[in-house]
Amino acid sequence: MRDPMQALATCFEQVAFFFPSGNPQLQKSFEQRARYLDTRNYPREKLVDSLKAYHQFLGANRKTLQMIEELRRNETLVVITGQQAGIFTGPLYTLYKAMTIIRLAEEQRERLRRPVVPVFWIASEDHDWIEIHKTYFLNYKGKPFSCSLPGDGEGKSVGILPVPAWEAIEQQLLQLPDVEFRASVLRDCRRFLNQAENLAQWFALTLQWLLKKWGLILFDPLLPEFKCLAAPMYEQILKLHGDVREALFRRTEAWTKLGFSAQIQPLGGEVNLFLANPERRAILNQGHGFYLRGQDKILDDDLLPALLRKNPETFSPNVVTRPIVQEFLFPTLAYVPGPGELNYWAQLGDVFSSFGFVMPILFPRLSAVIVTPSWQKTLSKAGLTLTDVYQGLDGYKERCIRDRDSLDIEQRIQHLRSVIEKGYKELGPLEDIHANVHDWLIRNEMKVNLQIEYLRKKLWQAQRKNHSAVLEGLRVLEDGITPNKGRQERILNPLYFVILFGEGFVDRIAELPLTGDFCEQKILL
After folding, report:
1. What sections of 330-382 are H helices per DSSP?
2. Do the Cβ atoms of 57 and 205 come closer than 8 Å?
């Protein structure tokens, strides 16, 4: 399968059809998109009033409230991204996404000479419990450990689930290194959890704290006032569900013909809306009426429209229509996706057209690997690169131990084997004593060789123990750069680095250049 990230960055012309607002690396794409957005109308007044009330509850600072107020102006545009409401913001890439929209909004504000504000869409409607219920830190020995939420999510939208007791979370964090900023960071985290009523608010308060100096606007689509604003689009989605399915099929077929994989795999009959009653279930229609996934009963034709008018908060979009609702609510100059999102957005161009919209510019999020001073020291001393670490250090560790063998363990063991082999050959004439002597010699020699192999392994085990400090340093390096054999940005929680280096760690992310190509950058602390 082809890589859409590489195609977007190196040969945009080949995929331009799937990204109609243009190449994210060209300023003219942003200028053209801005002109298109100027032809559209948005529910700015109601949106701003609702956002201000929400952020006042969150205790947002003056800069954030000023950014929100700018949205009243018809010339104000938005750079937006989104992510599930993970524990303590979830993995590092959540913070990278947020910083990308902040930086891109600042850049386009200057270049377009008009207000551009960053908005983070909290995917609180998502019910993928597995995706958000756990996060990872490194303990005082540099080994990954998890912090997880109790329960199973109950099939509900994660944003409405209650927060856990702080004691249950704190108990899991006892393995964190006892360093300068640990106490103050955990004290703030406890305050956010105590203030929050649900997981979405906990996420919002934590992310707002990390990015307070940049005025990030947060959006929780589960809030009733936002649901009311989105209700007209839910109604359109219900009416156009057949057109949307056909549009998705056309664009997906064209995408896969180019050799890319389809991220969205419809099961059939999707209306691309969920109904929570109380469990969140997909609404389906296969030509004979609406029904809910897992239930056979056909709903009355008037039931869903009536529910939508009375209780819009019970409806929510799926992965296909969430970007459409976003486009309806916000003057979206650009959306910042991760690599997986880029793939499914490529399938949505005709879906946007079904509603009379044009898909926004897709600007790849920042990608980075953090290298602490101790990891830098290990890399330098060993003469290793990050590529070496990504490829795995098992071979290097073995060579490292062998290079430190000043007593020629393997040669001496091999010499011993040769002597024993020669000795058993010299016992050959004894086979004349009895017919079974030949088998006895073979079995005896095998046992001796097994003992020699046992001795060899014990010698190397002792050799590794003698050089355990070197091996431990390499293990710590691997667990830091590739925790759980995965990419650091997809596993580790950013609060681990805030605990080690303070809130100034976030400033280092803000210094990264916007490359617009998912190219991994180094953050040397």
Report:
1. 339-345, 349-354, 373-382
2. no
Question: CA 417, 419, 420: angle at the middle one, nearest 5?
Answer: 65
Structure tokens at 157: 């939208």
Are 98 and 59 contacting, i.e. CB atoms less than 8 angstroms apart?
Answer: no
Distances from the Cα of 277 to the Cα of 48, 271, 274, 317, angstroms: 29, 17, 10, 15
Which pLDDT tens digit goes with each residue over 253-310? 999 999 999 999 888 899 999 998 778 899 999 888 999 998 888 998 889 999 999 9
Beta bridge partners of 270: 284
Kindly tell me if the per-residue pLDDT of 1 is higher than 80.
Answer: no
Q: What pLDDT shows up at residue 276?
A: 87
Looking at 482-524, list the stretches that DSSP marks H as alpha helix, in order from N- to C-terminal side: 488-491, 494-501, 504-510
Q: How far is CA 501 from CA 93, 176, 307, 483, in A?
A: 18, 13, 50, 19
Structure token pair of residue 107: 């850049």
Tokens read off for 15: 């995929």
Give DSSP secondary structure letters for 88-143.
GGSSHHHHHHHHHHHHHHHHHHHHHTS-EEEEEEE-TT---HHHHSEEEEE-TTS-
The answer to whether residues 204 and 295 touch, using CB atoms and an 8 Å cutoff, is: no
Give Cβ neighbours of residue 255 (< 8 Å, ≥ 6 apart).
18, 262, 346, 347
Using CA atoms, how far apart are residues 338 and 318, in angstroms rounded to an integer?
18
Q: What is the DSSP string of 115-129?
A: -EEEEEEE-TT---H
294: left (phi over 0), alpha (psi -120 to 50) or beta: left
DSSP-H helix ranges across 113-240: 129-132, 166-172, 182-195, 199-210, 224-239
Q: How many residues does the chain have?
A: 525
Domain-by-domain residue ranges, the chain? Answer: 372-493
Classify the C-alpha dihedral 407-411-417-419 as positive or negative.
negative
User: Which amino acid is present at 67?
Assistant: M
